[in-house]
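Lab notebook page, bench 4
Experiment: in silico fold of construct C2
Operator: M.H.
Input chain length: 367 residues
Purpose: comparison with the prior construct
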Amino acid sequence: MTGKIKRILSIGTAGLLLGALLAAPAQAEAPYLTTESTVAELHANEGIVGSGFDSWDRGSILPEQPWEYASWTLRQYTGDTADDAVAGLNLIIDNYNKGIQVTYPLYTPEEIAQDPTRADAELYYFPAQQPGTKYALLLSGNMLERSAKVDECCSAVSQLHEMGYAAFILRYRIGHELKDNANYDDLVRAVAFITENAGNLGVQAEDYALVGFSSGGQLCGMFGTERIGYTNYGLPEPGALLLAYPILNYVYGKPIMFYVYDGANPGDHLAPGDYFYNIEVPAEVTASFPPTFHWFGRDDSTLKVLFPSQQSLKLDEALEQCGVMHKLVVYDHAPHGSGNGAGTDAAGWLYDAAAFWEAAVAARHQV
């Protein structure tokens, strides 16, 4: 482990987090969910609650209340991704039933005491069927205060598991907890933790994929840059970035987020690179940027508001100019928030992305 990683991840953190890994005693059997289970049953499920997985999607300024969506079925709640999302949730329950630790806090009690918002930064672990595989780290999108861990990440995790990969879902800080790039700090800490503990977690430290949805895609893109990315922390280069409808330029949302989340005062200067939302990923691409698979839908109303020409289209131009291995797919029907694409033209995109990831890793090792 390099000195930089040591500064990111303390020895005390590793000992604290790995204490209950795989050898943890089996818990009482928790029931599995179906697409007809209700949201109330999801939130109360012994395997979900006992594992530590945060199944609540709202942020903390306007938290989801117990009565909201309670009677909805998981099919109603997650839409077209329901079958895969529930399969991902059942992986959590299955790991809980087997006594496998699912949740790993990213910060020590001392670090949380210094900044209480760090308590909400967690990793959720989905081991592969066979140890020693590559892993994918997933970052959901969020609408400022609402994450999409269940429909986006859980639906993708179930497919990655089916393909034989290990996976981690990152619960990064959102909403009013975003002060001073807290969300990006959580991503860096997550990769450092997995890298240091790869052997115990049964994954390869190298050649991993970052899978980012919407605003999660922007954080993944930042991690690939020379100026603020993985090389600055002594971390291994991602094998590939796999990005679904990424927001790579916040356009006119930059000053709004500057005032809302970072407490700016009128007249304060928003300098380039100071905050994650002010970083335009396409402008940061160089020849060392990781291989990138990305996609969006022509009927994505969110990206239409933020100008598609400044998002994936701009990124693809930069990747081409810098000679970076890349693939962009534009689907006719794939609304924002489609997750693994079930029910849209993007259905199966993650399998194509995994093939791209494998090809990128193979090409790197041939050099």
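Observations: Residues 3-366 form a domain with the Rossmann fold fold (CATH 3.40.50.1820). The chain has 16 helices and eight strands.
Next step: discuss at group meeting.
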